[in-house]
Design goal:
mainly beta; eleven-stranded mixed beta sheet; 1 helix; 10% helix; globular
């Protein structure tokens, strides 16, 4: 239960001045806001958003796979520009070759088709995700293990290149930052 003396708030030193108006009182909000902005920026970097001009790649991830087999890569490509862009090639030192593929179901049969040019519409997004467009990492040179990161370079029709780092998940979906088994 709070004690009230019956005196006006100002007489008790309880006036409603902003902290910046009270001499000798710390101002925690400005450093807190600056710290929050840095934390948000660091989270975006950890989550893996990479940008080259109007094209960005968000959250590149892969699944565990054995050496000598084929792995898969997933990410979301965004084009903030006013004209279409197209992903035309991908290279990574972890695989002999990287190809863009699309999974689809035709007459009850699931198949994967190679995609030579993956068009990203102006101000649009294309998700490379399980069951749709994805990267095939052919001829893995070493195993992909959960928690591992590996580089890849995406090349676009404009000649622009974008270097990204894929994170290998536990196999169930994109890795969650700070979540380890």
């Amino acid at each position: 239960m709070a004690y009230r003396s019956g005196l006006p708030n100002a007489a008790m030193g309880l006036d409603h001045q902003e902290p910046s108006a009270r001499p000798g009182i710390a101002q925690p909000m400005k450093p807190l806001a600056a710290g929050a902005a840095l934390l948000i920026a660091a989270s975006a970097a950890q989550a893996g958003t990479y940008t080259a001009g109007p094209v960005s790649a968000a959250e590149p991830w892969s699944r565990p796979a054995a050496a000598g087999t084929t792995g898969a890569g997933f990410l979301t490509l965004t084009n903030s520009g006013g004209s279409a862009e197209a992903l035309v090639s991908v290279k990574s030192p972890v695989a002999a070759a990287v190809e863009v593929h699309r999974s689809n179901l035709a007459r009850g049969v699931s198949r994967m088709d190679r995609v030579e040019r993956l068009v990203i519409p102006p101000r649009g997004k294309v998700a490379l995700a399980p069951g749709g467009y994805h990267l095939m990492l052919k001829g893995l040179k070493s195993p992909l293990t959960a928690g591992q990161k590996f580089p890849a370079t995406l090349t676009f029709a404009s000649g622009r290149t974008l270097s990204v780092a894929f994170t290998v998940s536990d196999g169930m979906g994109p890795p969650v930052e700070g979540h380890h088994h």
